[in-house]
Design goal:
This protein has 422 residues and is mostly helical. It is 73% helix and 4% strand. The termini are far apart.
Length: 422
């Protein structure tokens, strides 16, 4: 049975790799072919000059080539963790360390889970460093200093300890203390925890990494407040974020729920857009709220969590699963780690389905902005501006974008906006 489990996992693991690697290669060839033909989407004709188009293609190709090797490297790391004997070693190490210094029953599990997480964190440093200080710097996007990079990593580690240790303690305690129906109690706890994090993240967590300031007085702010009043949007504030201290990429996002919800604009976006374009972007973000997209995604994630925990409850004491990866005895903490490592290849096809729903939401938010402002031109210009400034791929392969993109391509969005306007 152990050999069957390993073979099944490797087959699904290889399938996921082949799909993602193959789509990346297909996209690279497709982009090169459009580049050779100088085939720019009609919506960008006259909007982007030859130098900007060449740079966007070069950026896309560079990211694709990097993704090729990063994908191989990441897969090798996962296989090494699963089949090198590292997991049983860490299990024994965690048990020994916990018995000496931490008498709490769940201490072994917490140490084990964090040890695995740390290994993946350190293993990802080479690709992360190259992406930040090599790839992004080469195309003029990176603004992060080594000092800021290290400070971010340290903050993230301390935050993971401060939040992750209590979280893991409760989950492991529930698995030990509540019998065969532990997964129901864990589901209730994790769902409540996620809801609390959605509420507190904008005000307590995000400010640890970025500076948020209320939008300054002026025409832009006045028009935003008038728009919010027009659509009945209530928010704790509209903020500018100092994204420029890490990257020159620009963006805007909607976060939080209830009274904690807020709209955040990157300072780079405000520098790169006109007032009308910025207002269109904000109308789009308000559209997500008015059409309850955040709530829908939370419901879907909650349903997926429910079924995921139920499946985990069926496997938590299944000895062949543990012995297949070198672990002598079943344990709750090893079940959590194995489930996290093995679930990706089993469920990777769900990603494109979630992206399909996300793209539907983006179309709906674009339509909301066009209808609310009674003009889709500003939204169209904002998308073109964002696409050019961020060196986005103008001509992705349809299969690649369907699999990877949570947003429709700029050309698809502009085409839909023109239909709404008409």
């Amino acid at each position: 049975m152990e050999q069957l489990i390993v073979r099944l996992f490797l087959a699904l693991f290889a399938l996921e790799f082949l799909v993602e690697f193959g789509l990346n290669e297909l996209n690279l060839r497709y982009v090169r072919a459009r580049w050779n033909e100088r085939k720019i989407p009609d919506f960008f004709q006259g909007k982007i000059d030859a130098r900007e188009y060449d740079k966007s293609v070069e950026y896309t190709l560079a990211k694709g080539k990097f993704q090729r090797w990063a994908e191989i490297y990441g897969r090798l790391v996962t296989l090494w963790v699963l089949f090198s004997g590292l997991l049983p070693f860490l299990d024994g190490f965690s048990k020994d360390l916990a018995s000496r210094f931490l008498p709490v029953m769940q201490a072994q599990g917490i140490i084990f889970c964090f040890s695995v997480a740390l290994i993946f964190t350190f293993a990802s440093l080479p690709t992360d460093l190259y992406a930040t200080f090599g790839l992004e710097a080469r195309f003029g996007f990176n603004k992060t200093t080594i000092k800021l990079y290290l400070a971010d990593k340290l903050k993230a580690l301390l935050l993971a300890i401060a939040i992750g240790v209590p979280f893991l303690f409760v989950v492991l305690w529930l698995m030990d203390a509540t019998g065969s129906h532990w997964w129901i109690w864990a589901f209730l706890f994790i769902s409540g925890f996620q809801l609390i994090m959605v509420i507190v993240y904008p005000t307590l967590v995000a400010p640890l990494f970025n500076k948020f300031e209320p939008l300054k007085e002026g025409e832009f702010r006045d028009r935003i407040l008038a728009l919010a009043d027009q659509v009945g949007f209530r928010t704790s504030g509209i903020y500018s974020m100092d994204g420029s201290k890490r990257s020159s990429h620009s963006n805007a996002y909607f976060t939080g729920i209830g009274k904690a919800k807020r709209i955040v604009l990157f300072d780079t976006l405000m520098q790169q857009m006109t007032t009308d374009q910025g207002l269109a972007v904000l109308a789009h973000e308000m559209g997500h709220y008015k059409m309850k997209h955040i709530h829908r995604m939370l419901v879907i994630q909650t349903v997926m969590l429910f079924f995921g925990l139920y499946i985990l409850s069926l496997l938590v004491n299944y000895r062949p699963l543990f012995s297949a990866f070198g672990l002598e005895n079943p344990s709750n903490h090893a079940a959590l780690v194995l489930f996290g490592l093995l679930s990706g290849p089993v469920t990777f096809y769900l990603g494109p389905l979630m992206n399909l729903l996300s793209r539907k939401h983006e179309y709906e938010a674009d339509r909301f902005a066009a209808v609310t402002l009674r003009d889709g031109k500003s939204m169209e210009e904002a998308l073109i501006n964002l696409t050019i400034k961020n060196l986005s791929n103008l001509t992705p392969h349809p299969w690649y974008s369907a699999y990877h993109y949570s947003h429709p391509t700029p050309a698809e969005r502009i085409r839909a906006i023109r239909q709404y306007s008409a």
